[in-house]
Design a protein that fits this description.
The structure is a single chain. The chain contains three helices and 22 strands. It has one domain: Glycosyl hydrolase domain, family 43 (Tachylectin-2, Chain A, 5 Propeller). The strands form seven sheets. Strands 3-2-1-21 form a four-stranded antiparallel β-sheet, with no helix packed on it. Strands 4-5-6-8 form a four-stranded antiparallel β-sheet, with no helix packed on it. It is mainly beta.
Amino acid sequence: MKYLKLLILIIAFNVISYAQVDTNSSTYYMYVYFINLEQSVGSRLAFSNDGINWQKYNNGKAIITPNVASNGEILMRDPNIYYESKDSTFHMVWTAGWTGKVLGYAKSRDLINWSTQKALNVGENISGCTVCWAPEIFYDDSQEKYMLYWATDAGEDGKRIYYSMTSDFSTFTNPVKFFDPGYSVIDATILKVADSKYYMFFKDERSGLATLKTQNIHYVVGTTPHGGVPSGYTADSVATNWSAVSKPITKVSCEGPTAIKIGDYYNVYFDFFREPSSTYRVVSVKNLDTAISPWPQGDTLKVSGGDFTYNHGSISVVPKKFVKFLLFHTPLDTLAGAPLDTGLVTVSTDIPLGKRNVGCGTGVGLAFIPPIGYKIAASRRRRKKILSVKK
């Protein structure tokens, strides 16, 4: 009877105090981001079922602290994570410093234990390279290799977008400049919409041109992630390997786009850098080629206690098993007994469950029951383990 009362109290507490990521959902989204005022602290994670209501992992504390130096700085800005399902590995890259020729890289199987961090010297063979910013990873299925791309200032008037190919994040092809519209651009992110149709969103980085309303987000379209003008699109007059640059899809002072399709809508999330507390964080359309400019503002992103504000991050779909493992401490079967033979460094996994967030998941409903079940089951396993040790 006392256990039944305890269970009732736990359920009541969850209903009154929390709503959370719905463990009955079929789709989960992960957002990796950083905080400008804590750019040397590390990357953070948040999870969602709908791309609107988010639950911060570990109370918003960093999951990894940087130690890669770039020109004397040790930062972790603009994080991007790519999940490779073939070997169940997360690959993360980030901006390691405001200046320099390197990017940061690390990998993990569970988002808690991370490999020894590496400096990727991608700018070494770019003449005049002074910065390497906002890297992202895209898997090019036509080549069966990873495409690492970023923004570099190489002595031109501002920055351009470069890429390099790799199959193992150890050996890279020589960097290639693949997007140059004739002015400074940064923060490229690629979304595959269909075979032979890729949208690349980016920030117009020009400054001092207030009358032209620069420093906002646009896109171009290509037949491959490297470019190529699709049928029915006009080639750009300067960057002829891509379609003509779109009208701005956001207001001025937006950067760090990341794009994904959720349901019938294409959402582009971004960082409203001049108003850090702004709720203007996502634009959303059903038709990517809409003539509307800027795109309609999406719903306000929420976390426990208010709005979800962040600095330059990226969104991706993540398997359910990792959400259950991180938020509810369920076993991660894919790691059971697997040797860490890929240079991974084990750190403490005793990270407390992040506070659940009001407004996430499906609300009160029955979505709260599975996490409680997970916790009870985990408690029973721990109790059995202790008893067996005593015997």
